[in-house]
C-alpha cells in the first residue's frame, strides 16, 4: 500500500530508520510530505500480519539517456523479518508500478558496504551499470 496519510507515513518510520538511522521520528512525516510536494516522492509499504515489514521510497524521473524511470531512493526490509520474501515482493511491486507508469527501468543505488543487499539485488535481476560519484558542497 502507498503510505499517504500522516498515520500511514508514521507507521513506516521504524523500518525506514533501520536503513536511515539519521532520521528523526519527530521530523519524518513532515520530511516525507515535503519530498512528496517538491519531488513527487512516494512511499510504498508492505504489511504482513498488520505490521510494516518492508518499505520503499521512490520517485518517477525522466532522464535524457534512458527516458522515464522509477528511481528507488530507499528499500529496506525489517531486520526481524528478512529472508521471508518481503523484499522480493516489494521489489516486484515496484517493477509493476514502473510498467504501469510507462517507465523503461527501475534504478537504485546501494552503498558499496551493503553486501547482503547486493546479493539480494543480483538475485532479483538487477545489475551494476555504472559508478555513482558525489561531492559534498556544504561546509562541515
From TrEMBL:
SUPFAM superfamilies cross-referenced by the UniProt entry: Acyl-CoA N-acyltransferases (Nat)
PROSITE patterns, per database record: GNAT
UniProt cross-references to Pfam families, sorted A to Z: Acetyltransf_1
CDD domains per the UniProt record, alphabetical: NAT_SF
Superkingdom assignment: Bacteria
Keyword Transferase: yes
Name under which the protein is recorded: GNAT superfamily N-acetyltransferase
Record-annotated N-acetyltransferase domain positions: 1-140
Alphabetized UniProt keyword annotations: Acyltransferase, Transferase
Amino acid at each position: 500500500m502507498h503510505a499517504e496519510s500522516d498515520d500511514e507515513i508514521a507507521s513506516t518510520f521504524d523500518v525506514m530508520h533501520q536503513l536511515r538511522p539519521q532520521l528523526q521520528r519527530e521530523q519524518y512525516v513532515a520530511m516525507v510530505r515535503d519530498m512528496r510536494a517538491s519531488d513527487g516522492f512516494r512511499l510504498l509499504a508492505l504489511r504482513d500480519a498488520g505490521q510494516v515489514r518492508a518499505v520503499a521510497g521512490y520517485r518517477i524521473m525522466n532522464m535524457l539517456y534512458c527516458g522515464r524511470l522509477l528511481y528507488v531512493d530507499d528499500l529496506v526490509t525489517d531486520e526481524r523479518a528478512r529472508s521471508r520474501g518481503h523484499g522480493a515482493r516489494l521489489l516486484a511491486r515496484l517493477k509493476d508500478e514502473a510498467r504501469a507508469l510507462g517507465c523503461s527501468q527501475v534504478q537504485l543505488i546501494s552503498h558499496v558496504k551493503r553486501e547482503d543487499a547486493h546479493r539480494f539485488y543480483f538475485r532479483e535481476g538487477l545489475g551494476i551499470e555504472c559508478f555513482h560519484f558525489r561531492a559534498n558542497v556544504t561546509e562541515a
